[in-house]
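Quick one: structure for this chain?
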Amino acid sequence: MRNFVSYEKSIELLTSVVLNKQTTQKLFITNALGKVISKDIIADHNSPEFPTSGMDGYAIKFEDLNNEFIEIIDKNPAGTVVESEVSIGKCIKTFTGSLMPKGSDTLIPIENVEVIDNKIKIIKKVPNGFAVRAIGENYKKDEVLIKKGTVIGFAEVGVLASLNISQIDVVVNPTVAVVSTGSEILDLGETQTNASQIRSSNHLTLEALFKSNGANVLQMGIVKDDIDSITNMFETALSKADIVVTTGGVSVGDYDFVQDVIKDKLKAEVLFHGVTIKPGMHILAAVKDGKIIVALPGFAYSSTVCAILYVLPLIYKFRDSKESLPIVKARITQNYPKKVNKTIFTACNVHYINGEYTIDFEGKKEGTSAILTNMLESPALLIQSESSEDIKAGDLVDILLINHLK
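Got it. Here's what it folds into:
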């Protein structure tokens, strides 16, 4: 008899595994999009380094604000350093991005003045220091701008470029081997020869999920239900991948050989086999030579939910990133009773209305854990903990936002 563990305990066991040391590579900054930076990025200068104009206008001394006229003595285009200085009764026409001329402390926008005979008349006043970008407004020297573990996006690329950094060290993404097992399943393009055969989507669904969440994927297709084929598959996968994910073969049937190979042939250290969750109660996780094996159930919805809950956090951990599953609060629009004494993940529809998430179950099908179409449109997973009570309409509940996964 297997000892089932709670969902919380299973996550604790999996996240406590010590991983093989991450390797890094150096990439040009635009090629690093989606990768995880492996070192803090620290500013080596102030930005801006000198007071700078924030718009087109006239650089003045603030004390001249009430003068009837101020003489224009020079122009100050961006990219040049004007030699003239601002003094009482004098101003310099200054453009966006230009250094503020010596002697000036305030910029009057062009639309706030009238120009009369090479002089300006201020028709709308501004506060002292208006439109002047202070030294270090963007960032200050020695400030940590991008923290280790950050996933590189367009803003990070822009900041790196402003620092004149062209290449950065990033964590090499983990490789996940994906395989579906079962003599009854057909790959894309295979012809059905009897009514019991079904088309496998699991290995391709999981490949897409893992790739979009920062993993390299080794697609191993479909393996038939025999011990030698499954053993050979595991040996190949473990030699090339950091994480091996299988679907099928972990339940209690006569032909569920995946669990036998993991335990008896590979002699892997089993972290858990069986969790009090729905769907996915027969999930198995094990460690072999620093590599992690996650054996998922065969039903499409079940394997996908469990891949989100268990494999994505492993990918984040291998990437040494600050990523996490997008779990938020939402208001439920109907009563929803607790059906079994497990941690339950139920597909629902999510909407963002009047500043909060709301969920309902309109159009969602009830049945087995094979209904992957429940993941279409605007899906989320309602999370009911093992100890939770019946949910009432209007309650705030925890949900996992499926479409917020990358």
